[in-house]
Each structure stands twice: as C-alpha cells, then as structure tokens.
Write a structure and sequence with these properties.
Blueprint: E1 2-9, E2 17-24, E3 27-41, E4 46-48, E5 54-63, E6 67-71, E7 80-86, E8 98-107, E9 111-113, E10 118-131, H1 135-145
Antiparallel strand pairs: 1-2, 3-10, 4-9, 5-8, 6-10, 7-8
Length: about 150
C-alpha cells in the first residue's frame, strides 16, 4: 500500500489542477483474448506547429468497465503522433466506465489537423482484475482486526 497524490486537470487540459490524496494498492490483471480497435478521430480543427504539443478534442471513446487501453504504435496522421489519450476531472477507477475525449498530439510538421481526420487507433482489451493483498495491506488489515 502506498499513499499517493494524484494531480489532475479539474476543468480543461492546461487549466486548473486539483490534487487527490489516496491510498493505492498494487494489483495485476489478465487480458482476455477479445479486444476492439477504436478509431481516434478529431472533433475540431487545430493548427499545429512542429514539436509543440497540443491537445485536440476527439469523438468520445467509451472504455467499458474492467477494460484497458493500449496504444497501437503506428503513425496514422501525417502531421504527428498521439502521445496520450486524456480526459479531465477526478481519476476514474478501471472498474468503472470511462470516457476519453481529448488527445495530446505531438506534431512532427507544421500544418492543420481537420475535424473528422483519423489521428490514431487504440486497442481496448477486456481484463480480469487480480487484486493481491500487498504485504502492507495485509499487515494493516491484521492490525485493525486483532487489536490488543
């Protein structure tokens, strides 16, 4: 168990940030044989400049509960690559549905990304979460259960 501090954008990428202090546990997962490809499509026109990261709104991608998103590392847009998919607001656990609505785009050339253009493709895999009691979590549970 580790005490962590999550820093996230409260209202928009590059806007106001907020902090959430919580406890986190390590756990593993098993990826099943079934997955889906999702197209990441621009929802706005955006001028991009070489080597200047920019956020671009995309058509919403729903990530089902207990699913993970893995990038497909193939450049799909001539002007650059998607560095990360993003969303704003409080982090959502993997056990809940999540919605991705923005990307961080790393341009390799100057130009214009237009609404409706394919930026990249992502893999969505369904996973079985394997929670493991880390040593710290087990010790904490025992201390609380058997107080002397």
């Amino acid at each position: 168990m580790a005490k962590i501090e999550c820093v996230f954008w409260k209202d928009k990428i590059g806007g106001e940030t907020e902090r959430l202090v919580t406890e986190a546990f390590r756990y593993g997962f098993t990826v099943g044989p079934h997955g889906e490809w999702e197209l990441v499509i621009a929802r706005e026109d955006k001028e991009v400049r070489k080597s200047e990261l920019v956020n671009i709104k995309i058509k919403e991608i729903e990530v089902p509960p207990k699913a993970i998103v893995l990038p497909c590392f193939i450049q799909r847009h001539a002007l650059g690559i998607v560095s990360s998919l993003a969303t704003v607001g409080k982090p959502t656990p993997v056990e809940e549905k999540r919605v991705l609505d923005e990307v961080i785009f790393h341009p390799i050339c100057n130009g214009m990304v237009n609404k409706g253009e394919l930026l990249t493709v992502v893999n969505i895999f369904y996973a079985a979460i394997e929670r493991r009691l880390a040593r710290g979590a087990a010790e904490k549970w025992l201390r609380e259960r058997y107080r002397y």
